[in-house]
Amino acid sequence: MDSLFDAAAEEAQRGHEPLAVRMRPRGLDEVIGQRHLLGPGTPLRRLVEAEAPMSLFLWGPPGTGKTTLAYVVAGVTKRRFVEVSAVSAGVKEVRAAIEQARRELGMSGRQTVLFVDEVHRFNKAQQDALLPAVENRWVTFIGATTENPFFSVISPLLSRSLLLTLESLSEEDIRGVLERAVADPRGLDGRLRLAPEATDHLVRLAGGDARRSLTYLEAAALIAEDEITVEVVERAVDKAAVRYDRQGDQHYDVVSAFIKSMRGSDADAALHYLARMVEAGEDPRFIARRIVIFASEDVGMADPTCLQVAVAAAQAVEFIGLPEGRLNLAQAVVHCALAPKSNAVITAIDAAAQDVRRGDIGQVPAHLRDAHYPGARGLGHGEGYRYPHDFEHGLVRQDYAPAELRDRRYYRPTKHGAEAAFADRWSRIRAFLRGQ
């Protein structure tokens, strides 16, 4: 009788769990994405199938399956699952969990998975408390983190664990998560239809986060009658569908307007188009690449720091992803929009390339040729070369360009921003080098 009551209670509790919890995979083969970690012969699969004691760090963006993998490992290997939150737990709670795991191991031989979410939030003392359990394999320790563990986890703990890096889920992965949730008895059990356009919208809103996609799907299902449409999703999650086809005209039109707004120094307009791309699910790395190109093509030497900011934003996006990465992109966009503008760099390289394509290349002056290999000196290579560092101001008059191109001008700096100082310096240097 008690067992029937417990089963009924468990079933009732399961019905009240969030959709994302109900849809957690029950085995490695049900996990969507992370194929590089789950394929035949991979370390994680070998460790699980061998049921060997292990310690893991799972590092990746939110919603990529870190908690899911921890549950799967515990379920497949029939281990106890104990979850500790690094946000609220202290050394006392960690030691209590470890002690309980030791007792369980000693009494029944059953191992425990100790899962620590947001493990990067643990301080050194809390991480030190984990060391004996990891070293003596009293628990199977699994730590999940969205931050680089090489900066946030103590070396002794990291060196005793296997580090697995999770990747953002692809659009097809998220689509698979949604389709399974609609059809699976643990999910919507086929009670509602999911319109293709609504699927596309949910995929965009998810931004590679499976948990977010299921949360939005569940919210939409609560107010849908027989079909989840784009309009239903918009009402449920208070996010309008951005009409944006990454393979169509909207993609090119918005990107074009984005670049031209920065070129025109309209920071507000540029931010609008940035937000439009981000909200539509555009790849943030694509946006970052366009900003890096812009920094040299449209700002150049008028503000040399613009390229530094753009590259830093691109690296930040790669490091932290979305949604936080939009802040770095926005900072770079504002910097680029408000910077003084110059297209002198792209004009210069294009002009030089045009000459090369026409065949106007000439011979490298003999005194500039490589003189390091045997016999080069006998050919006159390097003879007469004057080392600039031996001269005042690091300048010495000699020919650098081929004779045929000696008077060709490529770089024509503007007087905008910092380039004004470079223009003045280049004018004086060029006159000196050419004896003018």
From TrEMBL:
InterPro entries: AAA+_ATPase, AAA_assoc_2, AAA_ATPase_RarA/MGS1/WRNIP1, ATPase_AAA_core, DNA_pol3_clamp-load_cplx_C, MgsA_C, P-loop_NTPase
Pfam families named among the record's database cross-references: AAA, AAA_assoc_2, MgsA_C
Keywords: ATP-binding, Nucleotide-binding
Domain of life the protein comes from: Bacteria
GO biological-process terms attached to the record: DNA synthesis involved in DNA repair; DNA-templated DNA replication
GO molecular function: ATP binding; ATP hydrolysis activity; DNA binding; enzyme activator activity; single-stranded DNA helicase activity
Domain AAA+ ATPase: 52-168
Recorded family membership: Belongs to the AAA ATPase family. RarA/MGS1/WRNIP1 subfamily.
Name of the protein described by the UniProt record: Putative ATPase
Organism phylogeny: Bacteria, Bacillati, Actinomycetota, Actinomycetes, Streptosporangiales
